[in-house]
Design brief:
Structural class: alpha/beta
Radius of gyration: 36 Å
Strand order of the largest sheet: 4-3-5-2-6-1-7-8-9
Largest sheet: 9 strands, mixed
Number of helices: 25
Number of strands: 14
Shape: extended
Strand content: 5-15%
């Protein structure tokens, strides 16, 4: 193993969490055995009991603790070498990392000790989406031809090959499981290119919004320094998220990306050292703002990559950290623990070379595949000459120095340590809370049976009768809660107000549309004539046909100024203009939807609170009596789910319906021709002569295409209205079922709570029918189980306290 990890102070804390992890696993196994013994002693029939479910829960909790997932997501608001960083951690080039292969597809990478080579798994749902994208691209290609799409792809020459491939093949060749580094890299490169190609051709579509599952790579640990402690604790999982689009807009948080970010214990933000300047500061903040709003700053770490390009006079390490802290508004207290400077290319080159030598000790220098990469980093422009006089051993020593200078070791050390300090305790906390909850239930069951077995039969029957009355009252309460309908109606009314506000904000006029700052940045109208903006801002019914300020060029370009119709010579030009305007409209509406979604979540949270208050008040007498008898607490817990307001398919904007094909007659060109003539002055008209004369060719038909700006605005407004109406229907349907389900779940839990008590009393009644010998044996078992349960409960509390210290 190549171990380049410095012995930092953070490592001293790791054995504690590692030991605690193992002790919790042992505790869960002991409790599982205790539950089995309790079931044997307390349950008098062969039917499945709640104790079997307890054992399954403890088994699952033990698995989660032992197979702990240490998840971190990596995001980048710029092309900063994110994929190279992941490849450096993996020790091999799994992800495409060339300049043109910016990540468009979220991918999960899991490190495992159980496999020998990497495996890429693509979910069936994802394969179906890729095939749909492929077919849609093919339709566009057949409609416009490859030549017409070349202009759109001028900035993406690397995609032209894929475009030709799409034309020739029926579907993309894609298997659900791909094995091996080369095959995985090639597949991901193709899929990223496909999504990029589709996004360029169809910018109104958002293919990533369709994904509910993402590709997953499982790769072996290759002895990478800094990850050995993660190996002992569980599985390190890295999520590679999509980068920004070419327009530099905010990082797009689709539903699947949001889920990955929420599940991650650490978020790594990658910045490019060469792009850090005052001009970039606002851009970085704008692009990363959606992520900060989603996950906050507590678990945010920043990697500044490409510091190998630092030159004299550039920002120093201290200045970089202060710049990042100020830009992202991070606390200065522990900034050195949160911001790291690295050179991913150096780390990747060194790691790849060292691992290749490690796996092939007798390999010759020129046989090393990673030789060129590492030699270029070590020797610079003279690398090909320098390697003529070096040995594998010498180059390995240089690679080790290169690794240390890359800054990767402290970054990995701190990142993994942070994962352990957050993910591991949270997982342990969840398992220990389950342990405590179930142990209390076991303790109550055992205590109840111990007391009931010696209780008078008449008193026991009285208790059963009282409990049956409580259950009957509970059923009556469930059927007569009219206030729940009122809460539902109030929620729907408040949500209606929110949606009406959304509809009003979404409605635009021509003036709104063409004065918006975002639209001006979109540069779409400039492609026609900037003077057109002034024209469109004028009341279309209040100006003469051609005011004096209208330029000659504008008069020639606009077919009918009073109707706001813009002509284009080709369909492609009309489509490009329409596409840009609709993309702006879609982005504007999506921003409104994000704000609306927050308002809806706030309203649902308040409704959830009101519902809990109502149910607590109505069922308080039952719960109070049960607590008095059982000495246990019934926790009221409700959570109304947020409706899935998928904005990825928000506006149904069909650009093709806005483009009209027209025909008009144009004057023919002037030309010259030779004609035969006679004239009295030329041989008295007897002999003809030939002369050249100018003539005008006949009128001819010519196709042109128009876009009505009023139709564009009307289409946007109708589409946004329809979408808001669909949201309204979706919300009504959502809460019609979910509100009822949550109330039923509450009453179901309370019913189970009381029925569990009733079952114990009925079992105690049956105990009175046992023989004296059987009763004595049961009492002995109960006397043994009770102190064991208390002992495990005390141990659980101790571990909970210790776990809490890791989280404080």
């Amino acid at each position: 193993m190549v171990d380049t990890t410095p012995k930092t102070k953070t490592r001293k804390r790791q054995p504690k969490i590692e030991n605690l992890q193992q002790e919790v696993i042992d505790l869960l196994a002991d409790i599982c055995t205790l539950v089995g013994d309790t079931q044997t002693s307390l349950v008098n029939n062969e039917s499945p009991s709640k104790y079997s479910q307890f054992q399954e829960q403890f088994s699952a909790a033990s698995h989660n603790v032992s197979e702990l997932q240490l998840r971190m997501s990596i995001v980048a608001p710029m092309k900063a070498g994110k994929s190279t960083i992941i490849n450096a951690i993996a020790g091999q080039e799994l992800l495409p990392s060339c300049a043109t292969a910016m990540t468009t597809l979220p991918t999960e990478i899991t490190f495992s000790t159980d496999i020998q080579e990497p495996i890429l798994t693509i979910p069936n749902t994802a394969i179906e989406i890729f095939q749909e994208i492929y077919q849609d691209t093919k339709l566009q290609l057949n409609k416009f031809g490859i030549e017409s799409l070349q202009d759109k792809l001028a900035r993406y020459p690397h995609l032209m090959h894929l475009l030709g491939e799409v034309r020739k093949t029926k579907q993309i060749p894609l298997e659900p499981k791909i094995v091996g580094r080369t095959a995985i890299n090639k597949t991901l490169n193709r899929l990223n290119h496909l999504i990029r190609l589709y996004s360029v051709i169809e910018p109104l579509k958002d293919p990533l919004g369709k994904f509910t599952e993402i590709p997953q790579i499982t790769t072996p640990f290759l002895g990478i320094s800094g990850t050995s402690q993660a190996r002992t604790l569980g599985n390190l999982v890295i999520v590679d998220t999509p980068g920004p689009n070419e327009a530099g807009e905010s990082l797009k948080l689709t539903a699947v990306v949001e889920e990955q970010l929420r599940r991650s214990s650490v978020i790594l933000v990658v910045l490019d050292y060469t792009q850090l300047n005052n001009e970039a500061a606002e851009t970085i903040k704008r692009q990363i703002n959606p992520i900060l709003e989603l996950i906050g700053k507590d678990n945010l770490y920043v990697i500044v990559n490409k510091v190998d390009q630092r030159r004299k006079g550039d920002m120093t390490t201290e200045q970089v950290k202060n710049f990042v802290a100020a830009d992202l508004e991070l606390s200065q207290d522990n900034i050195s623990e949160r911001v790291f400077e690295i050179s991913a290319i150096r780390a990747f080159a060194a790691t790849q070379f060292l691992l290749e030598v490690q796996q092939n000790p007798k390999i010759k220098l020129l046989e090393i595949k990673s030789l060129e990469t590492v030699a270029q980093e070590i020797f610079g422009i003279d690398w090909d000459e320098e390697i003529e006089d070096v040995t594998v051993k010498f180059l390995a020593q240089k690679a080790l120095k290169l690794w240390k200078k890359s800054g990767f070791a402290p970054f990995l050390e701190k990142a993994i340590a942070s994962l352990m300090e957050t993910a591991a305790p949270r997982c342990l906390l969840s398992a220990l809370n389950l342990s405590r909850y179930r142990l209390l239930e076991l303790k109550d069951d055992i205590s109840l049976r111990s007391n009931a077995i010696t209780q008078d039969a008449v008193k026991l029957q009285d208790e059963i009768t009282a409990l049956e009355k409580d259950l009957a009252y509970l059923e009556s309460c469930r059927n007569n809660l009219q206030q729940i309908e009122e809460i539902k109606n109030r929620l729907q009314y408040n949500l209606e107000i929110i949606l009406v506000s959304l509809k009003n904000q979404a409605t635009i006029t021509l003036e709104d549309y063409f004065t918006a700052a975002e639209y001006q940045e979109g540069d779409a109208i400039k492609k026609v004539d900037m003077q057109a903006r002034k024209l469109l801002l004028t009341n279309l019914g209040d100006f003469e046909l051609f005011p004096k300020w209208i330029t000659k060029k504008l008069k020639e370009n606009l077919e009918n100024t009073t109707s706001g119709i813009i002509p284009f010579k080709t369909e492609q030009q009309a489509e490009a203009f329409t596409q840009k305007t609709l993309v702006w409209a879609k982005a504007r509406f999506e921003n409104l939807m994000l704000s609306t979604r927050k308002d809806i979540e706030t309203e649902i949270s308040q409704t959830n609170h009101n519902l809990i208050e109502l149910l607590t008040k109505e069922t308080q007498p039952i719960i109070k009596r049960a607590k008095g008898r059982l000495q246990a607490n019934f926790e009221i817990s409700l959570e109304l789910p947020i409706p899935d307001l998928n904005i990825q398919e928000s506006l149904n904007l069909d650009k093709n319906s806005l483009i009209k094909k027209n025909t008009h007659l144009i004057e023919g060109d002037f030309d010259e021709r030779v004609v035969k003539k006679r004239a009295w002055y030329y041989w008295f008209g007897v002999v003809p002569f030939y002369t050249t004369e100018s003539y005008q060719k006949p009128y001819k038909k010519e196709n042109y295409y128009t876009v009505s700006l009023e139709e564009v605005v009307a289409t946007i407004n109708v589409s946004s209205d329809n979408f808001v109406e669909n949201i309204k229907i979706k919300i009504v349907e959502h809460f019609e079922g979910n509100l009822k389900d949550q109330v039923e779940l509450f009453f179901g839990r309370l019913d189970n709570y009381l029925n569990g008590y009733l079952e114990n009393l009925q079992q105690a009644q049956a105990d009175h029918l046992l023989s004296l010998e059987q009763r004595e044996e049961l009492i002995q078992n109960l006397n043994k189980l009770e102190p064991e349960t208390k002992s495990y409960l005390q141990k659980t509390d101790d571990y909970l306290q210790l776990t809490g210290k890791f989280l404080s």
